[in-house]
Write a structure and sequence with these properties.
About 75% of the residues lie in helices and about 0% in strands. It contains 36 helices and two strands. The chain has a two-stranded antiparallel ribbon with strand order 1-2.
Length: about 750
């Protein structure tokens, strides 16, 4: 086996692979036009119906394409020797011969009738299916080779978005061609154009690397032995069984839904074709999301979610209104959901197959079996689906108020089979650590819609201003979906982007990866960023950050220590209370004094009231004084009332304080604390404040506080605050109204109902 592997052709480098991906997407776009114009779009089903074929005959013809997938079991060694790339290009080109051969179908129909037409189209479809199967036998292992696993989901999503736009245009063109064409001429024009586009796609594919011929080695295992080894892989078998159930449910339903819309809902032929536009819109809008999530969280949870959503769609088909115009609009919505869910299934299941199910070194044994199996199941399901609709032709009536028709059994299978597939796929080995429940939980936290929108914007943001705005949006979404992008922004070379990333991360729920990344920055040497990182740790509210913040207290930089002290207070680290109080009593640096005061206030350390009031008296900076007064206010509960008062006092100090004093008057009356002198002081104080004489009113309020016997009605800390406020209001008057707000807050908190 060692010699066998040593003689394998050299795989293209990642750079060469990336260089070939745009050509791959271009080829896929050209092939998409071929798909929509010919054998795979609703155009082909409507053509067969227009030629007079029954639904059973249509089912037989549709089954031929997947049935020929069985050819891959025999062709695999041949295409391997010929080279995956060369084989794919050759058979992808010659399959256009039967495509152009379909152009003779109208002439045969007119000359020889329906039976001969059926035989002729069956021959063309069979030839096309044979060449397609041989091409896909080579194409699947080639794609596994030239698409890097790390971006397989992103590639699939980008490719899907491009092909969806092309498909959308192709569907509109096809709809108009059919609407304005006469007889079968429109169908024939589409087949001719589709074949030409497909040949153009082959030329694009020639620029993709890899797929070199692999000569047979002496110790190379036989095909049967290789297939046997693949079938012995339980994980591979489970994947095939689950896959079979899903395509059995979706394949016939997707193929025959155009006829359902035309016959049962009453939608015109051109509008039926136009419904593909809604499907493509769903595909376009959700391709990026599914691909991105598959790469980040693994294919399996994405696949299971998409299967569950897909199982719900047949119910919508069944209950949709059957009158114009509501039927058309309902069909548009459901078609949009079909595009949304189907692209999720295709991207995630394809990625899981290539990354988690098929070992790259054994693709020659696994891929032919996979292609043959889905061909067998797909062909049988198409065959039986058409037959089932014919057998149920006489089904009619009502059930729970909803109509029954020949398509009802097919819709029921579309509901039941995906549900059977879910427990099977749950046992398939995942390609990532995320479980289904954990994955679903990502969409239940924060704002997932804002998250997805900001993630898309993040991919296209280029200049610093745009990146800053998108980074802010990532944080505002508060969604775990944005975690990777925030981590990426955290290491952006642009300083302001890193700063914005810290602000955004501070808004997120506690998360180990984010916390660790922020801690690393907090320990760094960029002091401005370190300080912001420490603030973010406190803002996130994660107690797991406490040990790291305590370690930062030994930093030689006072600004960093101050931020760590504040953050520990924000996190409620009560174990540091005594240490902070001791440090405050001996600290001389104003910045550190403010930090200690802030934390002691947050931690509600009543023993710090004297120290905080002393700092409040000594500090002259107005901003610092407001904060220090708030730190004291926090010793007596929520600071909201204090903050509200100070805000309103900046607008109209007289009126606001007069109203607050009146409320205080009611409390005093209730507690029977006012004597005649107190009533007189209260009346004078209230009157002065109401007449906007705030300075005199504040001094009178200080006298009132000093006169009242409040000590016996307040706790020790509260009484200390009131005595200090009474003294300072008489000293400063309106120059330091924070004392007035602090006194009112203390009374309000102590005597709240």
């Amino acid at each position: 086996m060692t010699a066998y592997r040593a003689n394998q052709p050299t795989e293209p480098t990642t750079v060469e692979k990336l260089r070939g991906l745009p050509w791959s997407m271009a080829g896929n776009a050209a092939n998409t036009i071929f798909v929509k114009f010919t054998f795979f779009g609703s155009t082909f089903v409507l053509l067969l119906s227009a030629l007079g074929l029954s639904k059973s005959q249509i089912g037989i013809l549709l089954s031929l394409i997947p049935y020929f997938g069985l050819v891959s079991l025999v062709a695999a060694p041949f295409v391997r020797r010929m080279g995956y790339k060369r084989s794919f290009l050759f058979f992808w080109a010659v399959r256009q011969a039967p495509t152009f051969g379909v152009l003779l179908a109208p002439w045969i129909s007119l000359r020889y009738g329906v039976p001969a037409t059926f035989i002729y189209i069956a021959l063309m479809v069979a030839l096309f299916a044979l060449f397609r199967a041989l091409g896909e036998t080579a194409g699947m292992p080639w794609r596994q080779e030239y698409i890097p696993n790390a971006i397989r989901g992103k590639y699939a999503a980008t490719d899907s978005m491009i092909t969806t736009v092309v498909s959308f245009i192709a569907v509109i063109v096809a709809s108009q061609v059919i609407a304005y064409g006469t007889g079968l001429s429109g169908y024939m024009l589409l087949f001719a154009a589709g074949g030409l586009f497909a040949l153009g796609g082959v030329w694009f594919y020639t620029f993709i690397p890899g797929g070199a011929p692999i000569p047979k080695q002496k110790d190379e295992p036989s095909p049967l032995r290789g297939f046997g080894e693949a079938l012995n892989d339980k994980n591979f078998r489970r994947f095939l069984i689950g896959y079979a159930l899903v395509i059995s449910a979706t394949g016939p339903l997707n193929s025959l839904i155009p006829l359902y819309m035309e016959e049962q809902i009453g939608i015109s032929t051109s509008n039926v074709i136009l419904l593909q536009g809604a499907t493509l819109m769903g595909t376009l809008l959700f391709s990026f999301m599914w691909g991105w999530m598959s790469d980040r969280y693994g294919s399996k949870p994405v696949m299971l979610v998409s299967i569950l959503l897909r199982a719900m769609l047949p119910v919508l088909y069944w209950v949709m209104p059957r009158t114009e115009p509501y039927g058309l609009w309902a069909a548009m919505v459901i078609s949009f959901l079909v595009g949304m869910t189907d692209i999720g299934w295709l991207i995630s299941s394809g990625r899981l197959l290539f990354v988690g199910v098929v070992p790259p070194e054994k693709k020659a044994q696994y891929m032919p079996l996979y292609f043959a199996w889905i061909g067998l199941v797909g062909g049988t399901s198409q065959l039986l689906g058409g037959r089932l609709v014919d057998i149920s032709a006489n089904l009619s009536g009502q059930f729970l108020g909803f109509s029954l028709d020949s398509y009802t059994p097919l819709l029921l299978l579309g509901l039941v089979l995906p549900l059977f597939a879910l427990p099977i796929f749950l046992t398939v080995r995942a390609d990532a650590d995320y479980g289904v429940g954990e994955f679903a939980g990502l969409f239940l936290r924060g704002n997932p819609f804002m998250a997805v929108r900001s993630l898309i914007n993040y991919q296209f943001a280029r200049n610093e201003e745009d990146v800053l705005e998108v980074t802010a949006q990532l944080g505002r979404s508060r969604s775990p979906l944005t975690e990777e992008e925030l981590l990426e922004a955290l290491y952006d070379p642009r300083y302001h982007v890193r700063l914005e990333a810290l602000v955004s991360i501070a808004q997120m729920k506690p998360n180990q990866r984010l916390r660790q990344a922020v801690i690393e920055i907090a320990y760094g040497t960029e002091l401005a960023l370190s300080g912001m990182a420490i603030w973010a740790l406190g803002r996130m509210g994660d107690p797991e950050s406490i040990p790291a913040l305590r370690a930062i207290l030994s930093s030689p930089y006072r600004s960093i220590r101050a931020q760590a002290i504040r953050a520990l207070g924000a996190l409620g680290d009560k174990e540091m209370s005594e240490l902070f109080l001791r440090q405050l009593r001996q600290e001389e640096d104003p910045g550190l004094q403010m930090a200690y005061a802030s934390s002691l206030g947050r931690l509600e350390v009543d023993g710090a009231v004297d120290e905080l009031l002393t700092l409040l008296y000594r500090f002259r900076n107005q901003g610092a004084r407001l904060e220090l007064a708030m730190d004291v206010a926090r010793l007596h509960g929520d600071e909201h009332y204090y903050v509200q008062l100070t805000r309103q006092m900046r607008i109209d100090a007289g009126t606001v304080t007069a109203q607050a004093v009146d409320a205080f008057h009611k409390k005093l009356t209730k507690h029977k604390l006012l004597d005649a002198t107190g009533e007189d002081l209260m009346a004078q104080c209230s009157g002065m404040l109401a007449r906007e004489n705030v300075d005199e009113g504040a001094r009178l309020f200080g006298q009132l506080l000093e006169h009242l016997p409040l000590d016996e009605h307040l706790d020790k800390a509260g009484a200390t605050v009131i005595r200090e406020c009474a003294l300072r209001l008489q000293e400063f008057g309106s120059r330091h109204l924070e004392y007035l707000a602090l006194a009112l807050h203390t009374i309000h908190s102590e005597w709240s109902e």
